Amino acid sequence: MSDKPDAAPKDRSLDLEDYLKGAADASNRTRVIMLAMVVASVLALVSFLNTMNFEIGWIKGGNPNANLQLKSWKLARLERIGDPRSDYVRQKICPPGQPCTLYADSPRTPAPASEETRPAEARTAPSEFVNSANADLRYRQFYAAAARDYVDNAFTVRVPFFGVAFDVNDLGLLVGIGFVTILLLLRFSIRSEIISLRISFKSVRAMSKEPREMLERFYDLLAMRQVFTMPRLKVDKLLIEHHGEEEWSSHEPSWTVWVLRGILKIICCLPLLVYSLVALHDLRSTAEIGKSIDPDHMRVLAVYTTTFWGLILLLTLWCLWKLVQIDLLWDSYWSDISGTPPKGLHYRYIRRVQRRSKRRLKSRAKLLQK
Q1: Domain count, the chain
Q2: pLDDT (tens digit, 9 = 90+) per residue, 23-44?
Q3: In this predicted model, what pLDDT tens digit does every residue of 158-216 receive, in sequence order?
Q4: What is the pTM for the complete model shown?
Q5: What is the pLDDT of the chain when averaged over all its residues?
Q6: How large a percentage of the chain has pLDDT more than 70?
Q7: Is position 284 within any domain?
């Protein structure tokens, strides 16, 4: 008989905590990259809006014979200030309640005969500025400040925090490089999250003699740490008693789960939407301006803009499919816990996984026979 004491049973609590922490960290990495993607998309969109000036041929504006023309607020304001007779200029230049004349609004009186014989360039023009409390000087300063602000912000883009400035015509190149890099990082992060979920659920299921109970506890604990991922939960276990009646402690995850999942996919498409606007503006609206400035550079711009748009499209679709796989993976384990059969896209995903497993088993059997 051995003198060695019986080995103590292995503590599984530490293993469960490790798997829980690893899966939660993978989800946090995906969330951080998506937040960085949203910030980059907003900054690129702001830079585009400061330089926007193009027409949409298939949408009519106020005039049924004219196309809808979209331009930046800075450019529209500059064009409005260019007309001193406009109400906008008078509201900004003229003091309230005081007479202010920028142009001779009254009809011109007939000039004497001696003035009619003078040269035309020496006569006073009907639209000449009338100096009334220095209103014309204020107008000139106002127009110069608006033009300077438009040139500084529409032709040059300044990167926040770094303080670097670049020409607005290079926006497609820099934004394309940034979006491709962020989407690649997002793809790697989603891959890590999928692997962490599969390893964690598989290991937790093998820990206990009652895998369903352990799996349900791990599922609930991990679902508590999710933000962008929307796991499905059992409705009957989320009810609380309040004043003698059962009420929800949070929003009911029936149809809201699918709405929130769809919103997450739209957020993932932000780089594609923003870069499509930038590419459309560069290749269609400002193409003639670019050719007049530097034709060779414009041809290079068209090549790399089209290339980056294709890469961003492929990476976006790839990330979307992997995000859908994360939802289907959660639905698979929720189906095992709740005992409900898979439906819809989840059912087709399960069948696809089963077909792939059968093909792998057949290929292994053929290799063993050889």
Answers
A1: 1
A2: 889 999 999 999 999 999 998 8
A3: 776 666 777 777 888 889 999 999 999 999 999 999 999 988 888 888 876 666 778 88
A4: 0.73
A5: 75
A6: 66
A7: yes
User: With contact defined as beta carbons under 8 Å apart, do 173 and 304 qualify?
Assistant: yes
Rounded Cα–Cα distance for residues 274 and 188 (Å): 22
3-class SS at 6?
coil
DSSP string of 302-354, one letter each residue: HHHHHHHHHHHHHHHHHHHHHHHHHHHHHHHHHHHHH-PPP-HHHHHHHHHHH
Residues in the chain, total: 370
What pLDDT score does 38 carry? 93
- For 74-113, give the DSSP string: HHHHHHHHT-TTSHHHHHHHSPTTS---SB--SPPPPPPH
Strands 53-60 and 239-242: unpaired
The pLDDT of residue 346 is 64
Query: Is residue 246 a part of any domain in this protein?
Result: no
DSSP letter for each residue of 57-78: EEEE-SSTTSEEEEE-HHHHHH
Cα separation of 230 and 256, whole Å? Answer: 9
Question: What CA–CA distance (Å, rounded) separates 231 from 247?
Answer: 20
Q: Do the strands 156-158 and 245-248 form a parallel or antiparallel pair, or are they unpaired?
A: unpaired
Q: CA 298, 302, 306 angle in degrees (round to 5)?
A: 165
**Sorting pLDDT into bands at 50, 70 and 90, what band is 113?**
very low
- Phi and psi at 285, nearest 5°, equal -80, -40
Q: Which domain holds residue 301?
A: 13-52+170-232+252-339
| Residue 150 located in a structural domain | no
Tokens 């604990």, residue? 221
> Which residues have CB under 8 Å from 336's CB, separation 6+?
212, 215
- 291-325 pLDDT, tens digit each: 777 788 788 888 999 999 999 999 999 999 999 98
Is residue 220 in a domain?
yes
